[in-house]
Amino acid sequence: MSTAKSKTSKVPPAADKRARVEIFDTTLRDGTQSEHIAYSLDDKIAIAHELDRLGVDYIEGGWPGSNPKDMGFFDRARHEKFHHARVVAFGSTRHAKNKPADDPNLRALVDAKTPVLIIFGKTWDFHGTDALRVSLDDNLEMIRSSVKYLSEHTGEMLYDAEHFFDGYKHNPDYAFKSLEAAHEGGAKCLILCDTNGGTLPEEVFKIAGEVKKRFGGARIGIHPHNDSGVAVANALAAVQAGATHVQGTINGFGERCGNVDLLPVIANLQLKLGHDCLNGAESLRKLTEISRFVYEIGNLPPRDNQPYVGRSAFAHKGGIHVSAVNRNTKTYEHVDPEVVGNSRRVLISELSGRSNLVATHGERYGLKEKPQDLKKILDRLMELENQGYVFEAADASFELLVRKTLQRHQPFFKLHGFRASTTVDDEGTSTTEATVKIEVGGQVEHTAKEGNGPVNALDGALRKALEKFYPELKDVHLTDYKVRVTNSKDATAAKVLVTIVSGDGKDRWTTVGVSENVIDASWHALVDSVEYKLYQTRGDERPSRKSERVAAVKA
Questions:
Q1: Which of 163, 212, 357, 437 suits 259 as a labelling partner, its CA being 20 to 30 A distant?
Q2: Distance between CA 238 and CA 170 in Å, rounded?
Q3: d(CA 108, CA 57)
């Protein structure tokens, strides 16, 4: 929703010159270990190009020795043009019984032909003896010889010290020896991995500082996981201790509780700590966009309360808060949302004050000068919320509510009727079909569509009927659908609140519907979704009868 003009600085004040921090993205490798992620090869290539446009320094594409898809990625990546980022292939140290040149894993890394290679090795003595079942000296030689062999076959060699912090706490001398082995082998950057995610920021700062002292001018990196909920803090602590290389994923995707989310790390490094990373302010403005893109590719709903880039990151609901933000945005915002490509939102509910409504719609509809219109909207809002509607996150439905209340709404189509039915055969297989009959400026369209359930079928039938009049609807799809009972004491006769989140690849919007009939409630939310999209693309423009006849002939 629109809001008052921001008064915070869009560019952070100049800080004393700090070391540039490299950003190493592992969304395509570590991020794919997230429970609900399954990228296709085309998905991985698309994400890689967005990461390159963002300005990350390294894109870890996968483990070529582990599966054909990752090898296929590197085959494709060699023919793709990346303007800034370097593609990285990931693997492990050689098998204890193999010489480096004869090890299939190391050969697969060389065959990937990437400009940068990275391998991990065992840092924790417990893992060397219990997981690899080799002597501690043999493990060190595996690290040294593997790094040395790969260094001779790539432009840049990096080393992930797996379980470094746990290893250091258990046996610091051996943990240092493992780093020394990689350094002697030719590793250009030693990355300290908090693989189990159990280390706290104070420990990371202390231990990373010890490593920096020990290795002098060597580049030091950090690879934190979020199992203790402090991955971002750990990444920043490591940088403050001297690390100049951070590994993580977009949106914090990863196994268990995920890797560190690079988005708040990047924003904090640049806006709070004064470090250079990515391509400066221009890249910062792409953070929100790439966050939503990666969610979209992964077919996952975005996390609204995600710092910096979430829809709720700069959302204000309390009337006192909104009143203060209208005067000066610094009162309740630590940075300007536009700096990271996000936007301010003022939420509307029965608890909201007049300032919320003026902030969101005052300028567009002249509500400051028309208190009677403001009262009409507030009265209608409370009336609908008493019926079970919730508008605080349903920005699209609320926009339509304002238009209807002020009699500024012109429907883009007229409904003659709809039907959804499900049949089940003898084998228990169900089929759902929906039919929709609508009219646009005198032309009637009657369509049918099958779907996975009545709502999906209705959505398909409605858009099928409208697309020849409004072709932009081909880009719209449902990204989330929720049903909530609003008065459970009425049992099966209770009203339900249906919430639908729609997207078109660029924007997302939320609509709601309420009824005792879940299909009816869903229909209202679907119609709001379509009409909101059309208002965004067409405003008050409607197809004329002549243009509709031409469209019909072409169809």
A1: 212
A2: 20
A3: 23
CB 286 within 8 A of CB 341: yes
**Cα distance between residue 108 and residue 389, in whole Å:** 57
- For 312, other C-beta atoms within 10 Å of its C-beta total 14
Superfamily of chain region 22-297: Aldolase class I (3.20.20.70)
Tokens 């593609």: give the residue. Answer: 87
Predicted TM-score (pTM) of this structure: 0.70
SS3 for 218? coil
- Segments of the chain assigned to CATH 3.20.20.70: 22-297
In this predicted structure, what is the pLDDT of residue 553? 42
Least Cα distance to 94 among 157, 129, 60, 139 occurs for 139
SS3 483: strand
Q: Which fold has domain 414-554?
A: Double Stranded RNA Binding Domain (3.30.160)
Domain(s) labelled CATH 3.30.160.270 in the chain stretch across: 414-554
pLDDT digits over 236-252, tens only? 999 999 999 999 999 99
**What are the start-end ranges of the H helices in 216-277?**
231-240, 262-267
Strand partners, 90: 118
Three-state SS annotation for 526-546: HHHHHHHHHHHHHCCCCCCHH
Task: Phi first, then psi: give them for residue 225, nearest 5 degrees.
Answer: -105, 165
For the chain, percent of residues with pLDDT exceeding 90? 59
DSSP secondary structure string, 322-340? HHHHHH-GGGT-SS-GGGG
- Residues 117-155: tens digit of each pLDDT: 999 999 988 766 776 678 899 999 999 999 999 999 999
Exposure on the CB side of residue 106, measured as CA atoms within 13 A: 25
